[in-house]
Design a protein that fits this description.
Elements: E1 9-14, H1 18-29, E2 34-40, H2 43-53, E3 57-60, H3 69-79, E4 84-89, H4 94-103, E5 107-110, H5 115-126, H6 134-145, H7 160-170, H8 175-182, H9 186-200, H10 205-214
Parallel strand pairs: 1-2, 1-3, 3-4, 4-5
Length: 220
């Protein structure tokens, strides 16, 4: 990879849609104070590449196919303690936003934001700001004032892996496909399912899905 000017903000893009990534890459590269140092459509690629390119700001979509988005934020925070993590997501529910901020994101913008708002958000977060889309700012303040367990539907009792399994199962993904996506065995998925049901007090898949929708883990 060619060297980039140290005076510019080094940006890394994570989004599972190539068209979205390329569009942002072109737009940000036109800014005089920014340079895109890399982009990825999976968590595995993002973690491998950001370890070497050391970006200043990472623009993160939470809907990544190979890893839970909240878990990815935690992994990025551990690997890149100096980088600023700015979420750009289609999710705008207060529970998901609060989870992202607790996992290490310093800002959260929704995908309905204008390009100018995203560019300004990158500049703000790079200088210590905490950009939030105006449409979610009020909900975020309310969510962050609550204890972690309040309004979480008991999800705080789940491990990160159990949350991954819950999201997929509640979305109607089969046990076999869930196992393939998470690179675990179907038997392990069933073990997680039993533990999730016990922790949440669920008795059916319908009830499990209702909890996932109510807490914002999946969309209705």
């Amino acid at each position: 990879m060619a060297e980039t000017p140290a005076s510019k903000l080094h940006i890394y893009l994570i989004d599972d849609h190539p068209v979205v990534r390329e569009g942002f890459a072109r737009a940000l590269s036109d800014e005089p104070d920014m340079v895109v140092v890399g982009q990825a459509g999976t968590a595995a690629d993002a973690l491998r590449e950001t370890a070497s390119c050391k970006p200043d700001v990472v623009l993160v979509d939470l809907n990544i196919p190979d890893r839970d988005g909240i878990e990815l934020l935690g992994a990025l925070r551990a690997q890149l303690p100096q980088a600023k993590l700015l979420v750009l997501s289609g999710y705008d529910d207060e529970f998901r936003v609060a989870e992202a901020l607790r996992a290490g994101a310093q800002g959260y913008l929704v995908k309905t934001s204008k390009l100018e708002e995203v560019i300004e958000g990158i500049r703000r977060i790079a200088t210590g700001g905490a950009p939030l889309s105006s449409s979610i700012a009020g909900a975020v303040v309310r969510a962050m004032r609550k204890p972690a367990s309040e309004g979480s539907g008991g999800l705080d009792a789940l491990t990160p892996r159990e949350r991954q399994v819950l999201r997929l199962l509640a979305a109607g993904v089969s046990t076999r496909e869930t196992a393939a996506r998470l690179t675990i065995s179907p038997k392990t998925v069933e073990t997680h399912r039993v533990r999730i049901y016990a922790k949440l007090g669920c008795k059916s898949a319908v009830e499990l899905t209702r909890i996932a929708v109510r807490t914002g883990l999946i969309e209705a």
